[in-house]
Task: structure prediction
Amino acid sequence: MLLKFKESLKRLIGLDFELIPSAHAPTILIAVSGGIDSICMGNLFIESGYPNLVAATVNFSLRGTESDGDEAFVKEWSHSHGIKCHSTKFDTTTYAAQKGLSIQMAARQLRYGWFEQLSKENGYSYIALAHNLNDSVETFFINLLRGSGIKGMRGIPQKNGAIVRPLLIFSREEIERYVERQKLFYREDRSNLENYYSRNRLRNIIFPQFKSINPNFLQNIEESIERVGEANQVLDDLFNERERLFYDKSRSKISIQEILNSGNSRFWLYKILEPFGFKGTIISQIERSLEGESGRFFHSPTHTILKDREWLIIKPIEEENQSGPPQQKIELLSIAGEGMQILFYHRYYHLSIISKENSPASLDSFKEEAKRSPAPFATLYLDFEKVRVAAKEYSTVTTIRSWSAGDKFHPLGMKGKKRVSDLFIDLKLDNITKERVPIMAIGNKVVAILGYRIDASFKIDRGSQTILKIECVEE
Result:
């Protein structure tokens, strides 16, 4: 394993560090969490004799004393090997709420941002991360399930600018065997054993099944990822040659006729529009509109497209000119079939109906899933009939809007009514984020705060026959 690691590292940094003076070897910042992967990578760096190493560890404050223990462990590990160690601590939960991010995405932003800051301030040449082959294959399947296209199916890159991943050629099983042989100590993150997150379900449930079918499935998927990467490069080269036929960059306009003549209109639309935040079903809708009437608008979190007679005209959303999104009316009876997708500021929400008799899941399972779903991306489940009855009782439409100063509701799981503004204070949301949280209301009655809580009067119970599911769509 050591020999393969050395060869991987030499290839990534573009030089044979064993043949040059130690002073000339670039300094590498190694990210060490204390877990099995990062301890394995750190030990391989030390065994390889690489001369210029600095460690960095992040305490995300997500597991209380366990997080503090991880930080202390890494500091002691670094000290025992004579390696300088940088450490920092973040309030990840608060940051996620303020930025409207999932905990995982917030942690990723904080981690990468700090590593890059350290490297810039101290002149470190590379940042080494301990992702392995399993991580890359997991990413492949997660992106495949999200429908992220060819680019997302390339797995994790072994090198991306200053970031290098020398362990990416090793499976988790190889890493475990190495750590056991070397009798290395590491910290176990118990959250890796919980199957709430998609990545953990793949790792702990799906992959063992794949392995029982084909013991070499990881290596086979790795080869497929390489082929997809090569195919994507060919397509990128072809796109760069033909892009000017379809897309007038100077005027941000796409020729409808040229796209139709291409014979692969959806593919070319995806290649042009993906950088503007247009994905999945929205691009399908745009494609279907090409031969239709002009005047239709399509929205991504950052841009708007106007379908004109001859052109698709792309314009950025000018936030400074927006006082907020207009109040959106929801016709409850139209939430059928594939459901309804709404855009509120820069985030999509998907509304769908689940029938008790047609769903294999029990009501209890929906309740449990709702409890596990973390704000600000919580998936909400409401009794659809209760919502419809309330709409009839108030003789008004259901709307999606920003909060108002007088808004009150009875949060599910709490006693009595609470001001929406007070809940926002409890969640430590800043003023910008508050304005971007969508409120589902019937008249003045708050039904749900999308991504966070529902009003208790609309909770599902044993008598519920149809369920309204409101899901934040992470594009």
Observations:
- The first helix runs from residue 2 to 13.
- Residues 328-473 form a domain with the Phenylalanyl-tRNA Synthetase; Chain B, domain 3 fold (CATH 3.50.40.10).
- Residues 319-323 have pLDDT under 50 and may be disordered.
- The first strand starts at residue 28 and ends at 31.
